[in-house]
Amino acid sequence: MYARRVQSIEVSGIRKLFEAAGKDSINLGLGQPDFDTPHHIKEAAITAIREGKTGYTSNAGIEELRDAISQKLKRENRLTYTREEILVTAGASEALHVVLQALVEEGDRVLLADPGFVSYAALATIAGGRPEGIPLDDQFHLDLEKAKEAMDGTRIFVLNSPSNPTGAVEDEKNIRALVEYASDAGVTVVSDEVYEHFIYEKRHVSPARFGENVITINAASKTYAMTGWRLGFVAAGKGIIDQCVKVHQYCQACATSISQYAALAAYTGTQEPVKEMCKEYKARRDLIYTGLQELGFSFPRPEGAFYAFVPMNQTLLNHILAKGVVIVPGEAFGKNAPGYARMSYAASRDTLKRALERIAQARGEVHG
Asked: pTM above 0.90?
């Protein structure tokens, strides 16, 4: 009655907890920035509405926005793409979907970090692929040798740095090695870079610098606090983009016109709000990391994004949830982290302090 490939996947564990949260809950479950979209971006959208820019656009997106993304990639990522090599999508989620639909044949192996973001395995399955997890080391970085060993006979390798859920940032040396090895093995690297601007001590490196068989995925969602605007993009060789546009055309037609004009203002306007958000996220990272350490938790300090991946057993997790602090069980992110939970610190410092108080109470109940 239903397609087996859809029946075999579950609704996101993140969303389940988000929907079930009570009114007085402290929600550290969803990767939802608590910042408002910067004013100049909202004004650009309002202007677009007033000027009647509310119809369909080109399937690939308005030329001005693709040119702006091209300039952004050159300026910030040292990547060279023309507008014809960029596809504007409804967020990074759709970007991942169209890429996997365009490239994955039935039964193809799709490698991804485990633990890793919930969408990767599900989207690979929907595309008919076979997702396979690559374990991380004790600092939450990819195990390079195990990644290399797994590449033989693989179609796609999904790389996410900074990582959701761990907050790990891969070093340039490892990224280069992965891309070069993947190229030799005929594996396409799909790089999800949505958290690139939220790195605290290290720096972001785009994998496409080191090889041509790399697809770059990004979005305005996290960078500009535009999650609800649903605006992302794919950057790749024209041959790949041409195939992705086919999938995009029939499932989406085009990204929302108003969101495209808002994103144009985001990419071409002042970047000061992004810098301020990063500064605040770092302060929140330090607050929650120190607070959890003082409560006896031991785990690698997050290097980027806005998540802490914290070891805890199911009993403690249940007590924390019962105290009204919504966090996500590690099993939502793969098979290798059942004894962990993800906490988002995309919440105010006061909210994080209240959450730590409740976590301390829960830990006291479990450990006496």
From this structure: yes
